[in-house]
Amino acid sequence: MTITHKEIVEILLHLEGSMCEEFNLQMDGVDLLLRRKVEVSGASLPTATSRPRSQPRSVAEKTITPIQNLSKPQMSSPPPQLPADGASHVELRAPMSGVFYRRPSPDEPAFVEVGDEVKDGDPLCVIEVMKLFSTLYASCSGRIASILVEDSKSIEKSQVLITIDSSN
């Protein structure tokens, strides 16, 4: 039995909402160690390390920042951002740096096009970070006003990806 990406994400989500400071899973030659990292501000964030059992920790240890809130559409995108000029366009911003994809897989159509109607919770795009894929969802209903990033391009955290006209 092996552990899947989905199961790792579920573990991270459960740990995020708990008071657990450390979690260690040893299975099928993989040692998964998750620890909370205390920030200067006092906020705790989980970090993950993973290594094959046969290698010493100092050689193979690698820190991975988890992708947060993948399983809940209403929480997987950052809160909606209204432009300062008071317009009714809601901005979908990147919650992390990575690669932006407009479609769920290369052989499928794009999630949305400019002018499409969307509802709160509809999938809009995917971000890839270290071979982990996170779907971002609409945080409101409306019409796609703009898609500001080309498919398969690198993005930075907080970059505006898509705007939704929520005045409908």
Q: How is this structure best described in words?
A:
It is built from 3 helices and 12 strands, in the order αβββαβαββββββββ. With 168 residues, it is mainly β. It has 2 domains: 5-64, no CATH class; 73-165, RNA polymerase II/Efflux pump adaptor protein, barrel-sandwich hybrid domain (OB fold (Dihydrolipoamide Acetyltransferase, E2P)), CATH 2.40.50.100. A hairpin with a 2-residue loop joins β1 and β2. The model is unreliable at 38-86 (pLDDT under 50).
Q: What does the overall shape look like? A: elongated
Low-confidence stretches: 38-86
Largest sheet: 4 strands, antiparallel
Integer average pLDDT: 74
Structural class of the secondary structure composition?
Answer: mainly beta
Q: How many β-strand runs?
A: 12
| Sequence of strands across the biggest β-sheet | 1-2-3-4
Residue share in helix: 10-25%
Number of helical stretches of at least 4 residues: 3
Query: What's the Cα radius of gyration?
Result: 18 Å
CATH topology of the largest domain: OB fold (Dihydrolipoamide Acetyltransferase, E2P)
End-to-end separation in angstroms reads 49 Å
